[in-house]
Specification:
It is a single chain. It is built from 17 helices and 15 strands. The strands form 3 sheets. The protein has a 7-stranded mixed sheet, with helices on both faces. Helix 4 links the parallel strand 3 and strand 4. Helix 1 crosses helix 7 and helix 15 packs parallel to helix 17. The longest helix is centred in the middle third of the chain and has 19 residues.
C-alpha cells in the first residue's frame, strides 16, 4: 500500500470539550468536503487512492478521519490512529483559532513519523492567510501565513505543504505525489518538491512549501471545478451527527454555491470580499441531489430512524425566488423522505415572504438566523441589514418569527458579542430572545459567539495576529467561553475589549436560564453558524 492517509480537524481547545451551551457537530463538514474527491477515487478503486486505506466502505474509511475538539483529550486517540494506520499523508484542516492546535498536532505527528509522512495544512485559516491575486506572480502573505511563519522561524518546518483555496482536487493530487515518492523510495515529506506537476489540477487554489529556506508555490491553472461531478460528502464518510432540532441523524449538505456569503459584514470570515461571489447556476439540482443522498445514506446505515439534513450554504440558494422554485419543482416531482433546514437572513425573508412558503413545500422546516445584535448601528452596521426602511432591526427580527410560525417552521439564532456593544445591550438581547421563546416556542438553539478577528486576506484592521497562541488559555475563562461557538481572549476585533470574566459569567448564567425556559432536549450536536468557521 503506497498511500496511507489520516485526515484531522485541528482542535480549538487545549483541554476539555464544547461547553453545555456550545454547538458543534460530530461530523467535520469542511474536512469532508475537501477530501470528498479523494474518497471517491478510493471508493472507485482509481489510482493510488484506490489501493489506499481509504478504499472500501464509508464505515471502514471513517476511522481515518479524526475530529479533535481538544488537544489533551484527543491525543490518546490520535496516537492510536497514528500507530494503527502509520500514515504517510496527514491532512490537517484548521480555522484561525485552531492554528495552535494544528501546529501541536503536526509537531506530534512529525516526532512520531519523521519524514516518512507528508503533513498538509489546509482549511479556512490557510485560505485567508495566503492568497495569489489574479495575474500576480507573488503570494500575498498575512502575518499568520503558515508558510511565512515557517520561513521566518516562528514555527518549525512542520507543514510540508500548505493549501489555500479549493481543496477537493489538489488534495487528491498531493496523495498521488506522495504515493509516487514512496514507490521511488523517497521520503513522503519530499512530495512537496513535486507540486509543479499539479499545476493543471482543477480549482482556484495555491499550494506552497518552504524548501531550503525559500517559499515555493504553485497556483492552479486548471479549469474551474465542476461541482456537479463531485460526490456528496455524506456518501463518502457517512453521518454521525444528530441535531437536537430534528432528533434524528443529520447530514451536512451543500448546494456548492461558493465558499462564503453573499453579504460583506466586515467582521465575518465568510464575507463576500474574502470568499468571492456565489456560483448559483445549477445550485438547486446540487442541493436536491445532496438531500437525496443524505436520505439514502442515513437509511442504509441506520434504517428506520428517519433522516434530516442541514444546508451549509451561507443563505439557502441565495433565497432566489427562481432557484427556490426550481428546488420546489424537483421536490414535487420526487419528494424525499427527509426533514431539513438551513440559513437565511432576516431581510431576505421579509423581502420575499411568498418564497418562504415555497421553501417550506420542499420539506424545509427549520432556519438558522444570524441576529448578532439588537442595534446594528451601535456596532458599525451589518452588510445584510438592508431593510431598515421596514422598521428597526429588532422589529424585523420579531416579524420573521411570526412569519416562520405561520408557515409551520422553527428557528435558531446566532448572537455575536464583542463588536463594541455595551454589556447591558448583551443582556437586553438575551432578554428579548427569552420573550420570543415564550411567545413563539423558539429560537432554539441560541448560539453564543464572541467576535474573533480573522486574517481576511489582510483586511483585518491592522491587527496582524499570528494566531500562534491558543485563543483561550487554560483557566476559568476558558471554561466559560467554551460555551461559545467561537471566542478568544487574545484575538479581539481591533478597538474592542476582550471578554471580561464577570461579564462572561453573567452572560453564561443568563443563557443557561434562557435555554431552560423550553423543555431540555438531548444536546448531541447542532448546526454551525455564519459566524463560526468549521
Amino acid at each position: 500500500m503506497s498511500l496511507r492517509v489520516l485526515a484531522i480537524a485541528a482542535p480549538q481547545f487545549q483541554s476539555g470539550g464544547v461547553g453545555d451551551l456550545g454547538i458543534s457537530s460530530a461530523d467535520p463538514a469542511s474536512l469532508f468536503n475537501g477530501c470528498r474527491w479523494a474518497a471517491y477515487l478510493a471508493q472507485q478503486k482509481i489510482g493510488p487512492w484506490g489501493e489506499s486505506n481509504w478504499a472500501g466502505t464509508r464505515a471502514a474509511r471513517r476511522p481515518a478521519v479524526l475530529l479533535m475538539n481538544s488537544l489533551d483529550d484527543s491525543l490518546p486517540v490520535l496516537h492510536e490512529r497514528l500507530e494503527t494506520i502509520r500514515p504517510n499523508l496527514v491532512l490537517i484542516g484548521a480555522m484561525s483559532v485552531c492554528l495552535p492546535g494544528a501546529v501541536a498536532v503536526a509537531r506530534y505527528v512529525r516526532a512520531l513519523l519523521g519524514d516518512d509522512v507528508c503533513i498538509v495544512l489546509g482549511g479556512r485559516h490557510a485560505t485567508e492567510a495566503l492568497n495569489r491575486p489574479l495575474g500576480a506572480l507573488q503570494l500575498d502573505h498575512h502575518p499568520s501565513s503558515p508558510l511565512m511563519l515557517m520561513k521566518n522561524g516562528r514555527i518549525e518546518p512542520l507543514f510540508d505543504i500548505v493549501v489555500s483555496g479549493d481543496g477537493e482536487y489538489i488534495i487528491a493530487a498531493i496523495g498521488e505525489r506522495v504515493a509516487e515518492a514512496v514507490l521511488a523510495k523517497r521520503p513522503a515529506a519530499h512530495a512537496s518538491r513535486d507540486l509543479a506537476a499539479c499545476a493543471d489540477v482543477p480549482g482556484r487554489w495555491v499550494a506552497g512549501a518552504v524548501i531550503d529556506g525559500k517559499i515555493c508555490s504553485v497556483a492552479g491553472r486548471g479549469p474551474e471545478i465542476d461541482y456537479d461531478q463531485l460526490p456528496p460528502p455524506c456518501e463518502m464518510f457517512g453521518v454521525r451527527t444528530s441535531f437536537d432540532v430534528f432528533g434524528v441523524p443529520t447530514a451536512h449538505v451543500f448546494s456548492d454555491v461558493g465558499r462564503g456569503c453573499i453579504y460583506d459584514c466586515n467582521f465575518c470570515s465568510e464575507r463576500r470580499s474574502v470568499t468571492g461571489l456565489p456560483r448559483l447556476d445549477g445550485s438547486p439540482k446540487r442541493l436536491y441531489r445532496q438531500l437525496a443522498a443524505a436520505a439514502r445514506v442515513i437509511h442504509e446505515d441506520t434504517p428506520g430512524v428517519g433522516a434530516s439534513a442541514f444546508c451549509e450554504d451561507s443563505t439557502i440558494l441565495g433565497f432566489s425566488p427562481a432557484l427556490v422554485r426550481e428546488l420546489e419543482q424537483l421536490w414535487q416531482a420526487a419528494p424525499l423522505p427527509i426533514r431539513w433546514g438551513g440559513q437565511l437572513t432576516i431581510d431576505q425573508i421579509l423581502s420575499r415572504p411568498p418564497v418562504l412558503s415555497s421553501l417550506r413545500a420542499t420539506g424545509c422546516e427549520y432556519l438558522f438566523l444570524g441576529l448578532e445584535t439588537l442595534e446594528p448601528g451601535a456596532i458599525g452596521g451589518l452588510s445584510k441589514d438592508v431593510g431598515s426602511h421596514r422598521g428597526a432591526w429588532v422589529q424585523r427580527a420579531e416579524r420573521v418569527c411570526s412569519l416562520l410560525k405561520e408557515n409551520g417552521m422553527t428557528a435558531g439564532v446566532a448572537v455575536l458579542f464583542g463588536l463594541g456593544e455595551s454589556h447591558q445591550a448583551r443582556l437586553a438581547l438575551l432578554d428579548k430572545l427569552g420573550d420570543w421563546r415564550s411567545r413563539y416556542g423558539f429560537p432554539d438553539p441560541i448560539s453564543l459567539n464572541w467576535a474573533v478577528q480573522h486574517p481576511l486576506l489582510g483586511a483585518d484592521g491592522g491587527a496582524g495576529y499570528e494566531y500562534l497562541d491558543w485563543a483561550l488559555p487554560r483557566g476559568p475563562l476558558q471554561d466559560l467561553l467554551r460555551n461559545f461557538g467561537e471566542a478568544s481572549i487574545r484575538y479581539s476585533i481591533p478597538g474592542t475589549t476582550p471578554p471580561r470574566p464577570a461579564e462572561v459569567t453573567e452572560l453564561v448564567r443568563a443563557a443557561t436560564l434562557l435555554r431552560n425556559t423550553l423543555p431540555l432536549r438531548r444536546r448531541d450536536a447542532q448546526p454551525n453558524t455564519c459566524v463560526h468557521d468549521n
